[in-house]
Amino acid sequence: MKIAVIGAGVMGHGIAEVFAIYGNSIYLYDKYPEALKKGLNSILWSLQKLKEKGKIEDVDKIYSRIFPINDLQDIEDSELVIEAVPENFDLKSSIFKEVSGIVSKDTLIATNTSSLPISELAKNVVNPSRFLGLHFFNPPVLMKLVEVIKGNETDTSVFNEGIEIVKRIEKIPIPVRKDVIGFVVNRILFRVFTSACRLLNKYTVEEIDSLAKYVLEFPMGVFELLDYTGIDTNYLISNEVKKRGFDFTCNKLKELYEKGFYGTKVGKGFYDWSKGRPNITKTEKMPSPEQLLKDAINEAIWLVENGVSTEDEVNLATKLGLGWKKGIFDYARELSIK
Ligand code: 3HC
């Protein structure tokens, strides 16, 4: 398949890499030459890692399927376009208007937005019936989940096509049947983030992350994950979702954003990353699992009750999208919250 990925940042270059591994030809576009260069270097680094681990054979062959471009007109013959630019509604809207004027009206156009409404974004394209959400998780090459989101105008056949495309790259698609803010995983994750931020009144970053890592056995601490996915990304998302009635407020996030401490990518966020991943130690004092997870569990129940996804799908989505050993409903049962 000929695929265009718009934006070579953390998500964009990772998505391009995954599709290239599975034999697709990729146009990787970024407006900024430096970002494109950085994205390509990250792809090479990642492909070499995968080769070391015996997961792929030929780095050069895969890499040669990726064509870096800096003129959007070059994507004209794409069969699928995936947008992965920063989480700013106006920016995404203008990209979709431009893309839609270049590709055929039969081209499938997808957004990797983590939270913005698909149906609102779809208003910018000529053919909204062929517009959908394909939401990958960071790092796309390692995380098995992709949320496939149906906008109000997405044709059912297009929704099903999205599910098939995800299966072809050996990821697990989770159908998100209603276009709700934050979809499934981020809706739950935002509740974990807000609970963690609220707990900063009584506990330190390390104490909360110690609970996440050593008791709940998450692969990363909650604040470590905020750094990893980007303080800037999360802050921009929190503003966009707040405008649409979903409150994911965290004063500390705003403070870090304003200081330019964007997390892993700049070497500083909640943690200092200048020497690599933070070493989170097990602390004596920590909040209880209920304090961190109760709101997230209630959110998961809401998703099922509102027919967004089934209980099994939501449970699996939290395991695969966040690398948790247990799904959100497994925790709910253990904590007798449900
Ligand atoms: N490509 C190839 N290899 C990679 C890689 C990549 N992109 N990223 C990391 N690796 C490698 C590491 O280099 C390391 O290799 P090594 O064994 O040779 O040193 C190996 O993978 C394991 O990495 P680590 O030792 O650093 O740590 P982990 O075992 O914890 O695995 C992880 C890393 C898979 C990222 C794991 O920590 C994890 O699952 N974290 C949670 C991530 C998560 O929750 N993602 C979703 C966030 S929400 C989201 O993305 C939504 C968005 O919209 C904001």
Automatic annotation (TrEMBL):
It comes from the Archaea. The keyword Oxidoreductase applies. Keywords: NAD, Oxidoreductase. GO terms for molecular function: NAD+ binding; oxidoreductase activity, acting on the CH-OH group of donors, NAD or NADP as acceptor. Residues 2-179 form the 3-hydroxyacyl-CoA dehydrogenase NAD binding domain. Residues 182-273 form the 3-hydroxyacyl-CoA dehydrogenase C-terminal domain. One of its GO terms (biological process) is fatty acid metabolic process. NAD(+) binds at G7, A8, G9, V10, M11, G12, D30, E87, K92, S114, N138, K265. The record marks H135 as: Important for catalytic activity. The keyword Oxidoreductase applies. PANTHER family: 3-HYDROXYACYL-COA DEHYDROGENASE FAMILY PROTEIN, 3-HYDROXYBUTYRYL-COA DEHYDROGENASE. This is 3-hydroxyacyl-CoA dehydrogenase. It comes from Sulfurisphaera javensis.
